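Subject: for your reference before the review

Hello V.,

The reviewers asked for a structural picture of the protein, and I figured it would be easier to keep everything in one thread rather than splitting it across files. Below is the amino acid sequence we used in the manuscript, unchanged from the supplementary table.
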Amino acid sequence: MEMIFAGLMLLAVGAADLVRQFVPRRSRVWVSACAFVVLLVVAAAADALAYAMAASAVATVWLLLMPSAGGGRAGFLPVVGVATVSAVAVVGFGERSESGPWGTIWQLVTPAGPVSLDLVILVVGVGVFLLESANVVVRSGLRSENAALSSDSDAPAQDGVLRGGRLIGPLERILVVALALAGAYTLIAAVFAAKGIVRFPEISRDTAHGNRAEYFLVGSLLSWVIALAAAFLVWWAYRTAL
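And here is what came back from the structure prediction:
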């Protein structure tokens, strides 16, 4: 279970969530089939066909256990499973010594040194996962928080929803990952502070039994944890490849 499996798995899960979220229901089957074929072709050229099949199976299970609105019966178990497998594949095994036909002709040299095909696939998979699948994870956490608040408060749960999170979240996570990999930790702190400042007027208008502050804290912390974990995964993969 090498690094490329983590990349293919995150790519498959992320692509599945993007299709589920943005493709009309009547077109999802053939769009998913086309995406599956592309994944198999890419994996076959990288001598990772078996990993691609396993990644597709993981994506199917993910869709079943993690509804788009969040809050599936399995809770965070699918998230823990994907995170654990990704960490083990990257930290425990690293990249392969042979990368198939593409690996023999792959040449990508950056100012920081050569970058392997396995690492590129991992980076692409992480990026695709952060776009929508991370939103699913955050919504799952918010839904759990929503249930707890609803049981302790007479205020309707939907009062705490903050607008714009579906677009802001992915942009914020990608920015945090990029800054973390660049070592710009001060700028990361500035991004976190700026988000709180921008959201403060909306949170300050909360009612006595409102839950906007709780939604903001839970959603933001989950989003930041996902982004920092993704950055660590990519950083570790790069360091071990040197």
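For the response letter, the relevant points are probably these. The chain has one domain: 3-241. DSSP finds ten helices and two strands in the chain.

Happy to draft the paragraph if you're swamped.

O.
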